[in-house]
Specification:
single chain; mainly beta; 22-stranded antiparallel barrel; 6-stranded mixed sheet; about 50% strand
Length: about 775
């Protein structure tokens, strides 16, 4: 019934454009008198499928929400997380048109964020890059980003985040949120306004502090975020500077399997705060004795896991028109990160365990440690030559990334370390590698306005990435790695067209080629083998992944409706497959090889109808068919994985999204419903199928007015998962498996139950 409801809502919104009277106007009302604020802005004038979500849409979501979760309403987007905010990084996954997160591109104010994976080697997650309250808009290109986007991983779409500009007037914003599981978030932003004595300089500084208990098990997830932005007018342009700092401390949920859920229930988690049970399970494993109840395997639960990250992100940008024909833009940036991801592991006891009189625990803390120091420059020039707009630019970056696996001792009688703190004084370093990644990208493009209605764009970019590895320390001498892998393509074309008809219809289409650089990390990509022979083999025999995307469609807009319909075909070649071989805590290398191609075909529909001046409805539907074209075959011709014709992992065929929004006399509300089709976490589609689910979220609020004390005062309630649906959200948390007929792959996380949050906001 829920699926039929969503489908009906989507059909109503999309078909309403063709109902009697829908074409009464030739476009949007010039003065906007009959137009409520759009939920989604469709990329008019773009030859690619592009949509934009505004600051207001983020503000109506629960405070502290990841903007990625807000994007889930857009066609072709699948988002999963094990927390209600979409910000818990171990669980966060976004896929678009069959491409997973590490095959997409992400930027903040034109600063590359890397692939935003959990163990990111060349960037950071958006939830650490900026407070959600400071985001001005988010732009999604489902198929291909602009040539100027600085990304070396965007085989599929790109997501660009833009911070809000400082206000022209002195003031600020204060928000306070409380809710389920002792969640509390405080946010404060102070605006300087224009300072005439300083040449019109304006800026803001903001601070966010959030803390919440996990919704199951023990532990906390918390973050402090500090953002600063300043803008100085320079002629007709401006100079912008920003500095953002994040201190994130979040404890993990245990990766589950179908077997664990069957035996122990979906609310099963790590044992914290039951230290005795964790020690007993580890001792049983070390001594070869039966595990304590209710353990079936030692990997059913650990004491705790956590992600600890400190990030500093800074940038300086210039946007300067020179005369009427030339515009120069440039951004210099710096990012440093210190991080640890840790688990309490029963596989290695603390030194001295088993010795008479020793208080050493039969377990230890295992960390993966990250240190990033990257600097880069993005620049470009645009020439307005009348019918032709010619642009060109570059991106250069140098990234030094150190990664290590270390172990820290614990005591048996009680925990002696804080799992939310940085660990020190390890007793064992298993490995440590230093990576240096050098990236150079150039692009050139011409947008030709052939007529007032028709314009075409054509251009290309070049990309060269050098990934160099050196060994700092290894316990096992067979794991020494030295060498360099290069990813290079000197001609990646992008062509497209847009035709604007007089009746509000816009037709668009385009073709784009992209290539992805190798990952420079000891836990992902070709270096995850931690074998010199593999590095040598990859450098001589493998090719970097590449994609070719065709897409086209039409947009329509009048004073009551806007919508888009698009179709696409994608060929994904030289696919690198990495199949998990054991529980993630063991840290065993994944199997990596070029395994052929993926072909994807799809359809995307989305529309928003203003039913009245106060009531609007939005709906989207996406169909995606992504299939592996080849089996995985060994060098001797043996079929290692029978993947030909199988559905790509984490790719549902059907997605339905709908929102009903109401705003009148201060009262505002939004009811959002989302249906996600079934997905696989197995390459062979044998076992590992996760059921479809439908989830509903609700927003209710009121804007006060009437006197100076009430102006700018809002109250808001957010209810996530209104009907308390029990479903699996994240898949692939422990990697994707070959097959899982028995349901033992520990690689799924379930979604949180119904949660309720209340926020009071005051602008001043």
């Amino acid at each position: 019934m829920k699926l039929n409801l969503i489908a009906g809502v989507g059909a109503a919104a999309l078909l309403s454009a063709f109902a009697p009277g829908a074409f009464a106007a030739d476009g949007a009302d010039a003065d906007g008198a009959n137009e409520v604020e759009a939920i989604v802005i469709y990329g008019q004038g773009q030859s690619r499928q592009v949509q934009t979500v505004s600051e207001a849409q983020i503000a109506e979501s629960v405070s502290g929400v990841s903007p990625l979760k807000v994007l889930d309403k857009l066609p072709g987007v699948t988002f999963q997380s094990a927390d209600p905010f979409g910000a818990y990084e171990w669980s966060t996954r976004i896929s678009i048109r069959g491409f997973n997160q590490n095959q997409l591109g992400f930027t903040l104010d034109n600063v590359p964020l890397g692939d935003m994976s959990y163990g990111n080697h060349n960037g950071l997650h958006i939830s650490r890059a900026i407070a959600s309250e400071d985001i001005g808009k988010v732009e999604l290109a489902q198929g291909a980003g602009a040539l100027s986007n600085p990304s070396s991983s965007n085989l599929g779409g790109t997501i660009q985040f833009f911070s809000r500009d400082p206000s022209d007037t002195f003031g600020g914003q204060a928000n306070l949120t409380m809710g389920s599981d002792n969640m509390r978030r405080a946010f404060l932003r102070l605006e300087s306004g224009e300072l005439d004595a300083l040449g019109g300089l304006r800026g803001y500084v903001s601070y966010a502090d959030q803390n919440t208990d996990k919704w199951k098990g023990g532990g906390e997830q918390k973050q402090r975020q500090f953002d600063l932005k300043a803008m100085l007018p320079v002629g007709e342009g401006d100079i912008t500077a920003f500095y953002n700092r994040s201190e994130r401390r979040e404890q993990d949920y245990q990766d589950l399997s179908f077997d664990i859920i069957k035996r122990l229930g979906s609310d099963w988690d790590n044992t914290q705060p039951n230290w005795g049970l964790a020690v007993a399970a580890a001792a049983a494993y070390q001594n070869g004795t039966p595990l304590p109840a209710p353990f079936g395997t030692v990997d059913d639960a650990y004491y705790a896991g956590a992600g600890v990250r400190d990030d500093n992100l800074a940038g300086l940008s210039l946007d300067l028109p020179i005369g009427e024909m030339v515009t120069v833009k440039g951004t210099a940036y710096s990012h440093t990160d210190e991080g640890q991801g840790l688990w309490y592991t029963p596989y290695l006891a603390s030194p001295g365990y088993g010795t008479v009189g020793s208080n050493a625990a039969p377990l230890s803390i295992r960390t993966t440690e990250y240190d990033i120091d990257r600097k880069g420059l993005v620049g470009g020039v645009t020439l307005d030559l009348g019918a032709h707009t010619v642009s060109g630019g570059f991106w250069v970056e140098n990234n030094e990334f150190n990664q290590a696996r270390r172990f820290y001792a614990e005591t048996a009688n009680r925990p002696s370390r804080d799992p939310l703190g940085f660990q020190s004084n390890p007793f064992f370093t298993q490995w440590e590698y230093a990576f240096e990644t050098r990236t150079v990208q150039f692009y050139l493009q011409d947008v030709w306005a052939i007529t007032e209605a028709l314009k075409v764009n054509f251009g290309f970019k070049t990309l060269k990435v050098e990934n160099e590895v050196s060994t700092v320390q290894v316990f096992d001498p067979t794991r020494v790695m030295e060498g360099q892998l290069d990813s290079e393509d000197n001609f990646l074309p992008q062509i497209g067209f847009v035709y604007q008809a007089d009746n509000g219809i816009e037709v668009f289409g385009g073709y784009t080629e992209n290539v992805a650089a190798y990952v420079s990390a000891a836990t992902a990509g070709p270096f995850a083998s931690q074998r010199q022979s593999v590095v040598d083999y990859v450098s001589k025999s493998l090719e970097p992944e590449s994609s070719k995307t065709f897409e086209g469609g039409l947009r329509y807009r009048n004073d009551r409706f806007q919508g888009v319909a698009a179709v696409y075909h994608v060929t994904f070649d030289n696919r690198l497959l990495a199949a998990s071989t054991a529980a993630p805590i063991l840290g065993l290398p994944a199997v990596l090889s070029n395994v052929g191609s993926v072909e994807t075909n799809g359809l995307e529909l989305a529309g928003e109808l203003e039913l009245t001046d106060n009531l609007s409805i939005y709906a989207s539907y996406a169909y995606n068919k992504s299939e592996y074209q080849d089996d995985v075959v060994s060098a001797t011709g043996v079929v290692e994985m029978a993947t030909a014709g199988k559905t790509v992992v984490n790719t549902p065929e059907n997605l339905f999204k709908a929102e009903l929004s109401y705003d009148r006399d201060g009262f505002f509300s939004k009811l959002a419903v989302s249906y996600t089709g079934s997905r696989f976490y197995t390459y062979e589609n044998i076992g590992g199928e996760v059921d479809a689910y439908t989830v509903t979220d609700l927003t209710l609020g009121y804007h006060f007015s009437g006197n100076p004390w009430l102006e700018g005062l809002d109250i808001q309630a957010n209810v996530t998962n209104v009907f308390d649906e029990d479903y699996i959200s994240t898949i692939g948390s422990g990697g994707f498996a070959k097959n899982d007929a028995g349901g033992f792959a520990q690689t799924i996380l379930n979604a949180p139950p119904r949660q309720v949050f209340f926020t009071i906001k005051k602008a001043f």
